[in-house]
Design a protein that fits this description.
21% strand; Polyamine Oxidase, Chain A, domain 2; FAD/NAD(P)-binding domain; protoporphyrinogen ix oxidase, domain 3; disordered C terminus; binds flavin-adenine dinucleotide; 3 domains; 20 strands
Length: 493
């Protein structure tokens, strides 16, 4: 066991920072490396975007409401933390999704997200696509592949080229661009959905590639392609993951300092790998390594003085603002107007509403009996002016949307608004190049690491994967640098 512990400060107590601390301390225990880890969080509460609010009557997710299971890292972390009994699936009885198109809700065929729609003809019979649009979509299998050596392209260009403009606008755009609250003509296919580009490269067609992948998959995995099991959550909401993770870190002796803002990272000697983390209460934490798990515009601010190049690269990553508005209604005032998990709204419709989830149908037990809980999602890249309104006007705006789109006229008995100013990083064209340059620039500061949703994946599983990677890498680098130092060499990394 090493005598002097490796002192690490992690800034940011969202899922990325907490997952980093978890991997770091786990790895430290395994490799018998003494680690003294402190996590600093500006807010008095942990979890960042993950915010579950439990009232007497409702369980409301202010930010994310579930995680994707096909990316296994969130599921694995839940199991590692002993939360397997708390995992909940979406309600299989209501697993349809709708798209608001030409004045009505139109059902998206099940399995569409896995490009294995059971009844593609329902795209036409349901009024989502014209016959021409549907045939063009189906022709994707025979559409020529793009030269794989050509540069990155936007989501919009990729999907229009492969599936035709109509399928893109009404079916694909609201599903894929909605995840980022972004503009599909700005977002990079390489950085958001690289798998689609790989499928085109490898199989000449996305549909062919998807079908091949599904038929090659073992039976258990094949059935997990179903919409019902694609997303999961925890009985007590996603904050249950945060609460358990924080408790596990506390037991491992991690210093947990919430309610303190980090103001600056200082390094007396850039190449020495020694840092000071300056906090707003005047504390100056010494560290052998620092991990910044903050939104990239915050990370840029913290690095401006001693890593201006990295800071300006990170500053160039745009963010979109959104809000979630949860509203409860007496169930009888909604009647049978709502079905499925909810609906998405294509950008082409030019509505302020991005999507609505029928929370009570998607997750039973999240509202009291006789009530229907609905969560609306508003704002997004290029549609942010709507968020300038005060809370009452925002609720009125969403109510007008629900009235005109699904005929809900009742007054909600409860409303809760969560605003996410600069909440959604946008992986625009050039994102990959930016990250490559950022890594080159960081290589000049051994012991400094950055992670978080703004870089390599915005979903909870991606944040966990990346945080885990950084935690492990940090310890490996530290062990390697120590070995070099102890052997008398001056080289660090
Ligand atoms: C409305 C919404 C819905 C979403 N839905 C889903 C979903 O259903 N499924 C899914 O997988 N993902 C979803 N996401 C995305 C996902 O929630 C986020 O990408 C992820 O939680 C981000 O985690 P993070 O730790 O990287 O960043 P954050 O959660 O932003 O954490 C960063 C932390 O750093 C702290 N901080 C910042 N500056 C400082 C400082 N100077 N000093 C100290 N602390 C600081 C912040 O207070 C914050 O707690 C959603 C996001 C939003 C906004």
């Amino acid at each position: 066991m090493r005598k002097t512990p490796c002192q690490v400060v992690i800034v940011g107590g969202g899922i990325s920072g907490l997952a980093t601390a978890h991997a770091l301390t786990e790895e430290g225990e395994k490799s018998q490396t003494a680690v003294q880890c402190t996590v600093v969080e500006r807010e008095p509460r942990w979890g960042g975007k993950i915010q579950t609010h439990v009232t007497d009557n409702y369980l409301i997710e202010g930010g994310p409401d579930s995680f994707l299971t096909s990316k296994p890292w969130a599921l694995e972390l839940c199991r590692t933390l002993g939360l397997q009994d708390q995992l909940v699936s979406t309600n299989s009885q209501h697993n349809q999704t709708f798209s608001f198109c030409r004045g009505a809700l139109r059902e998206l065929p099940q399995g569409l997200l896995a490009f294995r729609p059971r009844r593609i003809d329902t795209l036409v019979s349901g009024g989502l696509l014209s016959w021409g649009g549907m045939l063009r979509m189906a022709a994707e299998r025979f559409w020529p592949r793009r030269n794989p050596w050509l540069a990155d392209e936007s989501l919009g260009d990729f999907f229009r080229r492969r599936f035709g403009p109509e399928a893109f606008e009404y079916v694909i755009e609201p599903l894929v661009a909605g995840i980022y609250a972004g503009d599909a003509d700005e977002l990079s296919i390489e950085s958001t959905f690289p798998r689609f580009r790989e499928l085109e490269r490898e199989h000449g067609s996305v549909i062919k590639g998807m079908r091949k992948a599904l038929s090659d998959a073992p039976p258990a995995l094949r059935s997990s392609g179903e919409a019902t099991t694609m997303f999961m959550s925890l009985r007590g909401g996603l904050s249950e993951l945060i609460r358990t993770l924080v408790e596990a870190l506390r037991k491992r002796g991690v210093g947990l300092r919430a309610g303190l803002e980090c103001l600056e990272i200082q390094s007396p000697n850039l190449e020495s790998g020694e840092f000071h983390v300056l906090l707003d209460n005047g504390d100056r934490l010494p560290a052998d390594a620092v991990v910044l798990a903050t939104p990239t515009y915050q990370t840029a601010r913290l690095l401006r003085v001693f890593q201006p190049e990295t800071a300006s690269l990170l500053d160039g990553i745009p963010y979109a603002s959104t809000a979630t508005i949860s509203m409860a209604y007496p169930a009888e005032s909604i009647g049978s107007q709502i079905r499925g998990f909810g609906f998405v709204v294509p950008r082409k419709e030019q509505r302020p509403l991005l999507a609505a989830t029928w929370t009570s149908l998607k997750w039973p037990d999240r509202s009291r009996a006789g009530e229907t809980l609905i969560r609306c999602y508003i704002g997004g890249r290029g549609r942010e002016t709507v968020l300038e309104q005060d809370d009452n006007s925002l609720v009125e705006c969403v109510r007008r949307e629900l009235t005109s789109m699904v005929g809900i006229t009742a007054i909600p008995t409860y409303t809760e608004i969560h605003r996410w100013r600069q909440g959604m990083p946008q992986y625009v064209l050039g994102h990959q190049d930016r990250l490559t340059k950022m890594q080159e620039s960081l290589a000049h500061s051994p012991g400094l690491y950055v992670t978080g949703a703004g870089l390599y994946g915005i979903g909870i599983p991606d944040c966990i994967r990346e945080g885990t990677k950084v935690g492990k890498q940090l310890l490996q680098d530290y062990a390697a640098n120590h070995a070099i130092k102890n052997s008398g060499s001056t080289e660090l990394r």
